[in-house]
Amino acid sequence: MFTAQLAFALVLIGGPDPQADPDGARLKAGETCFAIELNGQVMGATRQVVRAAEHEGRPAWRIEIHQRLPALQFDVRDTFLVDRRDLTAMRYESDRTASDRAPAQQVRITYGPDFVSGSKTVGETRTSISEPLGRPVHDGNLWGLTFSGLDLHEGARHTVPSWHYDRGLGAFAVAVVGSRDVDTPDGSVAAWVVEVGDGSGRTTTYLIAKADHAELGYSAGPFRQRLGGDCAGFPA
Predict the structure, then answer these.
(1) Is the torsion defined by CA of 10, 15, 16, 20 positive or negative?
(2) Higher pLDDT, 42 or 236
(3) What CA–CA distances, in Å, run from 192 to 156, 168, 205, 211, 231?
(4) Cα separation values, 8 from 35, 216, 221, Å
(5) What is the DSSP string of 142-191?
(6) 182: which of 16, 101, 214, 228 lies 20 to 30 Å off by Cα?
(7) E strand or H helix at 92
(8) 67-79 pLDDT, tens per residue?
(9) Whole-angstrom Cα distance, residue 214 to residue 33?
(10) Long-range contacts, 226-229 (Cβ 8 Å, 24+)
């Protein structure tokens, strides 16, 4: 199988599609609920909300992704503002609830045209963040919807410049490795199988609908996310 690690190596030596910006018009406003499975057992849910917004006079998408896995004491809400044209990052906020396993964490990031600034607070310890970027980038925490915006077709591969508050500048290496039919609560959907790497040596496999570029789920190691979770207890 053509892996995302191989795609990452090929784009570094000048393969096709050396750099790509997603098309923000491929996203649609709405709410989606996913079930999160660990080794086949449902452990929690992800609520994803996409809304049209404006940021400093520019059309934007406001994206909220809230994940809850009660048995693992994991509750994180990420909120993104991205350019509605190409999904480049404008602002990122993340709040992780404190648990027996980890202290509370809060991240606040503002993206300028060629810089990033903000802070990360873990428990009582606050760390300032400031870094030049050189160009607009995509937020390294926003995975599925970023790939939904790409031009996907058999054999396609892309490199998407990104920045992450812990890892700094990087890139997503994205490779379409095939297609399959995916069972959803509304019936079977034809999907692209998309492998993604971020330079860490790990890959994640996403399923993106062919017809409307909707994110249908992903798998990474023992974890799997699929449409059809229970988000009834999530705050509005």
Answers:
(1) positive
(2) 42
(3) 10, 29, 10, 10, 26
(4) 29, 24, 19
(5) --HHHHHTS---TT-EEEEEEEETTTEEEEEEEEEEEEEEEEETTEEEEE
(6) 16
(7) strand 89-96
(8) 999 999 999 999 9
(9) 12
(10) 226/34, 226/35, 226/37, 227/32, 227/33, 227/34, 227/35, 227/184, 227/185, 228/33, 228/34, 228/35, 228/184, 228/185, 229/33, 229/34, 229/35, 229/36, 229/42, 229/44, 229/45, 229/46, 229/47
d(CA 204, CA 216): 13
pTM above 0.85, yes or no: yes
Which of 220, 234, 179, 233 is CA-nearest to residue 38? 220
Answer yes or no: are the C-beta atoms of 94 and 105 closer than 8 Å.
yes
Residue located via tokens 């399959």 = 180
* Helix H or strand E encompassing 7: helix 4-12
CB-based contacts of 98: which residues, under 8 Å, 6+ apart?
104, 123
- Please name the residue that has the structure tokens 């044209």: 85
